[in-house]
């Protein structure tokens, strides 16, 4: 990313900020989609991240971390949407949930079922690595955890998942 442009954005240049977040639009949307699995909610998460980022851009200390900083905001906004949506139950969802209970055993992939059993942070790591193509170092930066934690959690979880999937 262009550090001069980032520095302009930090100083309050709206056009510079707009160019930067637009360049991360696809990546931000895909990241939100891996968490939310819904087009509209994913776009909402990205747009809310753009707004929150604009309000807080002056808090960014180093320009080289802009991308990581912004993607963390996208992740947090996606989590906020999950929390908000978990409180709402729509009538059509009640029927869908009934149907899903019966169809889940047959229609869901074993891998997805296995992945849902993994703790949320490790599931996020796996999605960032295998769905989004991030390197382990980037995942550690985005989630703000040591690289050793990322490697250890992913190694042990993937090993366990492999055993579970072999049994089936």
Q: What can you tell me about this protein's structure?
A:
This protein is globular. Helix 3 runs parallel beside helix 5 and helix 5 (66-86) packs across helix 9 (136-143). It contains ten helices and no strands. It has helices spanning 3-10, 14-23, 25-36, 39-56, 66-86, 91-107, 110-116, 120-130, 136-143, 147-167. The chain is an all-alpha fold and 168 residues long.
Radius of gyration: 18 Å
Low-confidence runs of at least 5 consecutive residues: none
Instruction: Note the main sheet.
Output: none
CA-to-CA gap between the ends?
45 Å
What is the topology?
Layout: H1 3-10, H2 14-23, H3 25-36, H4 39-56, H5 66-86, H6 91-107, H7 110-116, H8 120-130, H9 136-143, H10 147-167
Summarize the structure.
With 168 residues, this protein is an all-alpha fold.
Based on the model shown, name its key terms:
single chain, 79% helix, 0% strand
